[in-house]
């Protein structure tokens, strides 16, 4: 998306208020950005977060695209199905983590309520 916009890595990094090295690591897939950073990236490119994540899954799944184009359509389909399954499993794990953190938050709130004499959160 950066090259479609005609931006250099330096320009993209500057728009995100981050170092060129850090931005380059994200673009090369060496670093996975957190949700806040993904939201910033989506904003500077003018896309919805879902579009960015979807496009990132397609463009940066660790496949060798030089060889991918030499594969037959059925081999490409199988490879994409594997990548889709990996993405689905990652999303399931994230959902489980979110539910766990929600429960932890509720438990902590309950503990705070027990410790406060009036039983109310601030």
Automatic annotation (TrEMBL):
CDD domains: HTH_XRE (cd00093)
The HTH cro/C1-type domain, residue ranges: 1-52
Keywords associated with the record: Coiled coil, DNA-binding
Organism: Thioploca ingrica
Listed name of the protein: Transcription factor, MBF1
UniProt cross-references to InterPro entries, sorted A to Z: Cro/C1-type_HTH, Lambda_DNA-bd_dom_sf
Coiled coil: 77-111
Top-level taxon in the UniProt lineage: Bacteria
MF-aspect GO terms: DNA binding
């Amino acid at each position: 998306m950066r090259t479609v916009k005609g931006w250099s890595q330096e320009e993209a990094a500057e728009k995100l208020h981050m170092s060129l090295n850090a931005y380059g690591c994200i673009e090369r897939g060496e670093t996975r950005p957190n949700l806040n950073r993904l939201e910033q990236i989506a904003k500077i490119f003018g896309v919805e977060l879902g579009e960015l994540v979807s496009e990132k899954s397609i463009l940066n799944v660790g496949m060798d695209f030089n060889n991918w184009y030499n594969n037959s359509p059925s081999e490409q389909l199988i490879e994409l199905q594997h990548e889709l399954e990996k993405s689905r499993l990652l999303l399931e794990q994230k959902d489980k983590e979110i539910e766990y953190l929600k429960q932890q938050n509720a438990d902590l709130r309950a503990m705070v309520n027990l410790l406060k004499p009036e039983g109310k959160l601030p």
